[in-house]
């Protein structure tokens, strides 16, 4: 490998140090993860900072992914375009259940709501666009986590146990048991994990490369979920929505590649 290609490869490897969900990393942590000489890692970090792909906190010297990387990623996968094209799928799920429906994307070890259709019922649950949740709790988080590879799941589960809404800790063994059920059913169902008296149904969807991108969720008061007919209706709705979104993304219609735009 030439020096220039090696430098590019190492720069990409440095950016990937943030894939596990870490918001900030020190130079020492980057050096340890990459297994390279500290001087070389410092040079790479400085170059990426100058190019606007990393940010360096002037107070503590820690590095984080900058909006420059997000801008590049947005050209490859446009969330606004995804929402527009996913709307018929989300609206079908909402019409079938009459409950709040959410479209969620994975960001590291969290799931983020990027769109929400709120139930018209007088008693309902709504978390709001931008709401973030640990992947280890709730229907949406577990649906996404269930679709990740074993190594990624192990990394997510290796951190401190999250707290249920009731205050108790979600142990690793409990989460692993939950994941086994989700994988068997193809969808997740949880009650009271993130919000007391709330039930969440969710199913994952994948991108064109087959990797999980997020999940479609249905959120409702747990009292309504006790109706077995309605419970199965919600479960069916998220399964169908997850499959439909996966098919949509596989077709390439929900992503816009900048090179294709330039050729048009």
UniProtKB/TrEMBL annotation:
InterPro entries recorded: GAF-like_dom_sf, HTH_MetabolicPath_Reg, Tscrpt_reg_IclR_C, Tscrpt_reg_IclR_N, WH-like_DNA-bd_sf, WH_DNA-bd_sf
Gene3D superfamilies listed in its UniProt record: 3.30.450.40, Winged helix-like DNA-binding domain superfamily/Winged helix DNA-binding domain (1.10.10.10)
Keyword Transcription regulation: yes
Xref: SUPFAM superfamilies: GAF domain-like (SSF55781), Winged helix' DNA-binding domain (SSF46785)
Keywords noted in UniProt: DNA-binding, Transcription, Transcription regulation
Domain HTH iclR-type stretches: 5-67
GO function term, MF aspect, one: DNA-binding transcription factor activity
Any one GO BP annotation for this protein: negative regulation of DNA-templated transcription
Highest taxon in the source lineage: Bacteria
Keyword ATP-binding found: no
Domain IclR-ED: from-to ranges: 68-251
PANTHER family for the chain: HELIX-TURN-HELIX TRANSCRIPTIONAL REGULATOR, ICLR FAMILY, HTH-TYPE TRANSCRIPTIONAL REGULATOR RV1719
Protein name per Swiss-Prot or TrEMBL: Putative HTH-type transcriptional repressor allR
Organism of this sequence: Nitratireductor indicus C115
């Amino acid at each position: 490998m030439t020096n220039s290609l090696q430098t590019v490869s190492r720069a990409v490897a440095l950016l990937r140090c943030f894939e596990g969900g870490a918001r900030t990393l020190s130079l020492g942590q980057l050096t340890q993860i990459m297994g390279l000489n500290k001087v070389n890692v410092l040079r790479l970090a400085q170059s990426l900072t100058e190019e606007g792909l990393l940010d360096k906190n002037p107070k503590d010297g820690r590095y984080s992914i900058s909006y420059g990387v997000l801008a590049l990623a947005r050209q490859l996968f446009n969330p606004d375009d995804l929402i527009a094209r996913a709307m018929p799928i989300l609206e079908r799920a909402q019409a079938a259940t009459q409950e709040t429906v959410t479209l969620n994307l994975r960001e590291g070890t969290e799931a983020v709501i990027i769109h929400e259709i709120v139930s018209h019922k007088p008693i309902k649950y709504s978390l709001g666009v931008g709401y973030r949740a640990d992947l280890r709790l709730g229907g949406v988080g577990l649906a996404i986590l269930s679709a990740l590879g074993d190594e990624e799941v192990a990394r997510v589960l290796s951190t401190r146990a999250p707290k249920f809404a009731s205050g108790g800790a979600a142990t690793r063994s409990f989460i692993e048991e939950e994941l086994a059920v989700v994988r068997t059913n193809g969808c997740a169902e949880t009650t009271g994990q993130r919000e007391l008296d709330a039930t969440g149904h969710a199913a994952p969807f994948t991108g064109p490369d087959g990797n999980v991108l997020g999940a479609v969720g249905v959120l409702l008061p747990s009292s309504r979920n006790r109706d077995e007919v309605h419970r199965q209706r919600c479960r069916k709705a998220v399964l169908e929505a997850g499959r439909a979104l996966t098919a949509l993304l596989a077709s390439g219609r929900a992503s816009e590649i900048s090179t294709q735009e330039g050729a048009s």
